[in-house]
Model the fold of this input.
Amino acid sequence: MPVYLGDINTRARGLGTRLLSRADIERLAHAGTLWSLQRELSSLGVCPAETPATPAGLDLAVRRRAAGLMSILGRWSTADRDPILAVILEDEDRRSIQAVLRGAEQGAGSEARMSGLVPTASLSERALRVLASQPTPADVVRMLVLWNHPLGAPLVEVVADPRPSLFEMEVALQRGFAARALKHARAGGRHLLEYAQQLVDIMNAWSILLHFPERDESIAEASFIEGGRFIGRDVYDQLFASETLEDAQRNLARTMRETDLASAFGAELQSLASLEASVLRAQIEQQGREALVTPESAAPLIAFALRLRAEVLDLRRVIWGVALRAPAALIQTEMVAP
Done:
């Protein structure tokens, strides 16, 4: 019997009313200066009045707001709901760990590694800051293992190699997350399980698009993640065998035709960053609709978490767009919020 989620879903809907509308974020894109942006964000309750009018200061305020909203949701959890929330929260942790690993590999500054991330109970702002300060990806993994984070264990074997590759670490991270998400999702009923399977499908879709130029059989073998609903191994190999990148994206849309993701992948070929925004937007729209049709499912929880991620990403774009004096119209075209 599925776990009762009525009260926590009600809380998620309530928290959703605190999120900024697209109109609010579009208005912020016209701020002109970081000082003006800081005042606007303060008036909207996103940051305290004393927040420094700098990209790093505003970024930090946005992450703290997201962490605060997530923690409120977490306080409504119970032992039987923990596995359900784990699917949602560990997805954010997976994204955060991947970003930090990439930043460590590239030698990026700690603030750059953390930009656009959503802190959670298991990877708080302080924990993310510690991870972002590690000099190498192997050091990041060592910290995760020291903290007994569940996504650290799958990475141990990879970093045991004297020269671990970022590709191997990312695949190990994705496989570790997928295994846990699929296991936990069964406690939340059919809808949550289908969502976890969708996350696996999306990870496989990104692997295909990212590694398509190589189109090496060994890459397909090494990067495939088990557990998706639509992209099994045979389909994965067929997509890798597409003639062009545009064909691969078109074939992905055809494969996902039963979901809202088809419209994202079926759009005109675009950059992966733009495509990522389109996919997240499609997920938000799908979960928002499901939350109305099946309000007793995990859809309201998922919809809130995705909308919160979209807000964090959109505000990051606004902050850095204003800092770099980018035209407001350009900032708006890259926004995720529907």
